Amino acid sequence: MEYIASQDRYDNMKYNRCGRSGIKLPAISLGLWHNFGSIDVYNNSRNILLSAFDNGITHFDLANNYGPDPGSAEETLGRIMKNELKPYRDELIISSKAGYYMWPGPYGEWGSKKNLVASLNQSLKRMGLEYVDIFYHHRPDPETPLEETMGALDLIVRQGKALYIGLSNYSAEQTKKAVAILNDLGTPCLIHQPRYNIFDRWVENGLLDVLEKNGIGCISFSPLAQGLLTNRYLNTIPENSRMAKPHGFLQKEAFTAEKKKAITGLHELAQKRGQSLAQMSLAWILKDKRITSVLIGASSVEQLQNNLRTLDNLNFTAEELKLIDKLSEPVIQNSK
Prior knowledge:
With 336 residues, this protein is of the alpha/beta class. It has a domain of 170 residues: NADP-dependent oxidoreductase domain (TIM Barrel, Alpha-Beta Barrel). 36% of the residues lie in helices and 13% in strands. It has ten helices and ten strands. The strands form two sheets. It has an eight-stranded parallel beta barrel, surrounded by six helices. It has a two-stranded antiparallel sheet with strand order 1-2. The model has no long low-confidence stretch (mean pLDDT 95).
């Protein structure tokens, strides 16, 4: 059956200006880090993506190594773009990144011009696109000169392979230096993508100030602390969760008694607000005017719809914010 996007797709989404640019992003964006790889059920991935667009999510975020297998999330998006979303390309902001390990040898990761240009060429081929809207350097490279990495991003924009460029996982000081180089080159940084959630607040120690001063947007990844800030971990570690997997990013050691207590308290507050813990946690990030968008993942259309209901209540009282700080204070991570 031919896909036709919902006519009211823009009615309920909130759009925020990205720094001082001409671009607005949806308050909630969809990340394809998980659930869109070759090991996942294609029809489920497709349904999530199309449902997101039908609800006003115009920004899909990827990276060259997303999968698994690495690269397969971009292939999934490419298939959906070709079959369903091609007529809507100009309504979409599609981003990708490079910097983490992708292929063998000395050019398969980090921040050399060779790696970044080759990686984006591969990504465009996998997605069947002529350009991406945003291309990020995924992580700082301790060995490649920053001038080379920023020069590669500038080159990519001048080649027409990306409209804007961004940084991810850069500290405040690294961001300051990179932004100065980019401004001199004439290709300003559009956006920064850091990890940020109620439990992990390192960006508050300078990075958000740097972004605001330079007119750069901010989109947070892992806004739900990889699932900890959801109802899934209220009682115990659920089977098939990220924490239950032996080699996942989220380790059982992270589920301390203090963290469990904090999660329980935050859940109780969320209920009083008429929200789930996840909805309140997303709203908490969006309360800061320096935040352009939050990146959510979704394993089902139902989960996506639940997270979208965050937009029904984005306001907090001063007392609620103080309580969130008090409940989370014992487990807050303030350093990168």
